[in-house]
Amino acid sequence: MKKINIILYFLLFAVLTVSAQTNWSFDKSHSKIGFTVSHMVITDVDGKFNEYEGTVVTEGEDFEGAHVNFTIEANSINTDNERRDNHLRSDDFFAADEYPQITFAGKSMKKVSENKYELVGDLTIRGITKEIKLDVTHNGTVQDPWGNTKAGFKLAGSLDRFEYGLKWNTAIEAGGLVVGKTVYLNIDIQLKKEVTTES
């Protein structure tokens, strides 16, 4: 009897500790991975990447502690100027032929206020990996007209492009650089809820 009770105890413990794991995918038709960089100090140039994939895994529908991962195709860079985009794909910048993908591997997602989070992860560009912090705003979770659960997020952060080997530059006569050293990230992500599994 004692042995049976012990077995029942462990079975009950296992049931109580089971957590629902929710998978989310990027809805690319309603998302954007964008950036802004200064040009000759006097103006900003905006760009984006057209091709990317991403996943988020949460415990239930709580985004604190979420596992966030995404991959960007470097060749898909788009600043609305073909000549400039080809230069950005070259060895002066992304060396997209040699390093075709930019990756982000999330390490932590901490809630800092009601709808604000701090996302920390490893960003790899040109084979160089650096830890980066992104400020995340959860804009809400809703159900669309087709019954899909969607969650919207805005991510913001910055990086020093020189740290990732994107070192091409030319100084201008008035001082400063043709292309700014700091790149500002402005990312809008709409997630679609996929399969919930027990773990």
UniProtKB/TrEMBL annotation:
SMART domains (UniProt xref): YceI
Chain ranges of the Lipid/polyisoprenoid-binding YceI-like domain: 23-192
Alphabetical list of InterPro entries matching this protein: Lipid/polyisoprenoid-bd_YceI, TTHA0802/YceI-like_sf
UniProt-listed Gene3D superfamilies: Lipid/polyisoprenoid-binding, YceI-like
Protein name: Ycei like family protein
